[in-house]
Amino acid sequence: MALKGTIVVDPMHCKGCSLCVDACPQNVIALDMEHLTPKGYHPAHLIAEGCTGCVICAIVCPDAAITVYREAPQRRKK
């Protein structure tokens, strides 16, 4: 069973550098060309299901603007 995850991008810190877009192995992050942050940048956002919560995007983000959430794996019953 594949892990499921999601990201939250803080628009106050995201400067639209697209490092997370390039680093995402699932190709589920893109810059939101329809919105601007308060600082005038196009922020990153999740564009599709398929995020595994691998955290690579958060690691490469130079402004620590990405928080990753992962679904807890279910424990097996004995």
TrEMBL record:
Keywords carried by this UniProt record: 4Fe-4S, Iron, Iron-sulfur, Metal-binding
Keyword Repeat: no
Domain (4Fe-4S ferredoxin-type): residue spans on this chain: 5-34, 42-71
Keyword Metal-binding appears in the UniProt entry: yes
InterPro entries registered for this protein in UniProt: 4Fe4S_Fe-S-bd (IPR017896), 4Fe4S_Fe_S_CS (IPR017900), Fe-S_Ferredoxin (IPR050572)
GO molecular function, one term: metal ion binding
Lineage top rank: taxon: Bacteria
Name under which the protein is recorded: Ferredoxin family protein
